[in-house]
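Renewal narrative, Specific Aim 1. Our central claim is that a sequence can be written position by position from structural information alone. The example that follows is taken directly from our test logs and has not been curated for this report. It begins with the C-alpha cells describing the chain, in the order in which they were read.
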C-alpha cells in the first residue's frame, strides 16, 4: 500500500463483515507512505491481533510488496486485494471455498471479464488501455485467462513460497508474474466481480506504471538473457546522447564556446539527464527522494560514469593498438565495458544503499 491511510479502517471493517465466521488475518505491506498509512494500520493492530504491518524502507513496488506479504503468513491460503476498496471483498469467501473444495485447484482469480463481471464506471480510454494490456499479457501466459491483469486473487501459499525465488517482482501485476514463472500451468478458476470506483485517495495509475507493465512483459520474454534493469539502463544511456548533442551544439556552434569546454558541459548535462531518468524508471523501486539524497546520488553517479568513460577510452585505445585498423570493434568493446561498469557500480553505490 502507498498513501492509503484513510482506506485502512474502511478496509478492515469491510473484511470483518465479509469474512464473518472465518479465521483470517490482514497483512498491510506499506512502502513507507508519507501520509502515515503504516501508522493507521498499527493503531488497529493494537486492539486487533489479526492486523499486521510490514513497513518497507527504501523500496517500492506493488508486486514485490505482494510477494513479501504473501510469504510472511503461515496461512495455507492467501488473497491479494488492493487497499483502495475497488475490489469486492465479498468474493473472498467464495474464493476460499473454491480452493478448499478442489484440492487440484491452485488459484482463484477475481475477474472483470467473465459473465457477471465488469469494469464499473471506467471511461472508454481506460477500457481500451486495459484491453490492449490484456492482449499483450495473454501472449506470455501459459493459460487461457480472461483477466490476466487482475490484481485480486487467492492462491495456495505453498505455491507462492515455491515460486518466490524466481519471480521478477517488477511492476504491479503479480498475477502475471506468478503464472508465467510456474514451470507447470497453474490450475485456476475465474469468479466474476464488478470493479468499484475509488472514493477515497488518489489513483496510482500513471505513465510510469504503464512503463513498468511493459518492463514486466520484457522480463518474462527475454529477461533471463539480458536482465531488464541492465537493458533499461543501456536504453537510457542511448537516449542521453540527445541532450549531450543538443548542449554541445548550442555551446560550440551557436555561442562559440571552445569545443573542450562545450564537451565537458554537455557530458555533465547528459549524466544529469541519465541520473534522473534512471532514478525515475530503472530504479523506481528504490529511487532516491529528497534534496540531499538526490544530490549525493547525482554526485556518485557522475563519479561512477566518469570512471566508466576513462575505462571506455582506455580499453578501446588498447584494442585499437593491438588490432590495427579494427577501430569499430574496439570502440564497441569500449562502450560495452563502460556500460557494464556504470551499471554495476551505480546499482551498488548510487541506488544500493539498502
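The sequence written for that structure reads:
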Amino acid at each position: 500500500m502507498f498513501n492509503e491511510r484513510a482506506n485502512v479502517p474502511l478496509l478492515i471493517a469491510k473484511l470483518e463483515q465479509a469474512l464473518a465466521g472465518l479465521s483470517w488475518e490482514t497483512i498491510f505491506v506499506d512502502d513507507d507512505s508519507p501520509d502515515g498509512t503504516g501508522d493507521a494500520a498499527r493503531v488497529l493492530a493494537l486492539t486487533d491481533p489479526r492486523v499486521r504491518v510490514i513497513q518497507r524502507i527504501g523500496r517500492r513496488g506493488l508486486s514485490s510488496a505482494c510477494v513479501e506479504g504473501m510469504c510472511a503468513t503461515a496461512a495455507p491460503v492467501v488473497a491479494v486485494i488492493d487497499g483502495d476498496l475497488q475490489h469486492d471483498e465479498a468474493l473472498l469467501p467464495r474464493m476460499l471455498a473454491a480452493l478448499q473444495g478442489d484440492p487440484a485447484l491452485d488459484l482463484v482469480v477475481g475477474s472483470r471479464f467473465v459473465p457477471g463481471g465488469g469494469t464499473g464506471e471506467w471511461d472508454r480510454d481506460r477500457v481500451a488501455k486495459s484491453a490492449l494490456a490484456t492482449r499483450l499479457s495473454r501472449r506470455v501466459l501459459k493459460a487461457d485467462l480472461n483477466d490476466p491483469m487482475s490484481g485480486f486473487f487467492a492462491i495456495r501459499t505453498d505455491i507462492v513460497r515455491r515460486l518466490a525465488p524466481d519471480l521478477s517482482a517488477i511492476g504491479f501485476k503479480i498475477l502475471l508474474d506468478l503464472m508465467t514463472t510456474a514451470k507447470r500451468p497453474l490450475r485456476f478458476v475465474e469468479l466474476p466481480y464488478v470493479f468499484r470506483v475509488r472514493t477515497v485517495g488518489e489513483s496510482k495509475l500513471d505513465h510510469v506504471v504503464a512503463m513498468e507493465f511493459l518492463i514486466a512483459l520484457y522480463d518474462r520474454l527475454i529477461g533471463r538473457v539480458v536482465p531488464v534493469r541492465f537493458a533499461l539502463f543501456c536504453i537510457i544511456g542511448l537516449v542521453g546522447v540527445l541532450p549531450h548533442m543538443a548542449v554541445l551544439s548550442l555551446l560550440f556552434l551557436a555561442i562559440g564556446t571552445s569545443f573542450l569546454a562545450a564537451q565537458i558541459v554537455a557530458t555533465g548535462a547528459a549524466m544529469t539527464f541519465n541520473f534522473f531518468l534512471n532514478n525515475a524508471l530503472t530504479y523506481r523501486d528504490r529511487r532516491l527522494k529528497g534534496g540531499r539524497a538526490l544530490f549525493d546520488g547525482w554526485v556518485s553517479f557522475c563519479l561512477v560514469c566518469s570512471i566508466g568513460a576513462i575505462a571506455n577510452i582506455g580499453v578501446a585505445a588498447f584494442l585499437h593498438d593491438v588490432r590495427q585498423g579494427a577501430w569499430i570493434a574496439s570502440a564497441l568493446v569500449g562502450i560495452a565495458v563502460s556500460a557494464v561498469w556504470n551499471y554495476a557500480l551505480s546499482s551498488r553505490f548510487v541506488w544500493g544503499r539498502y
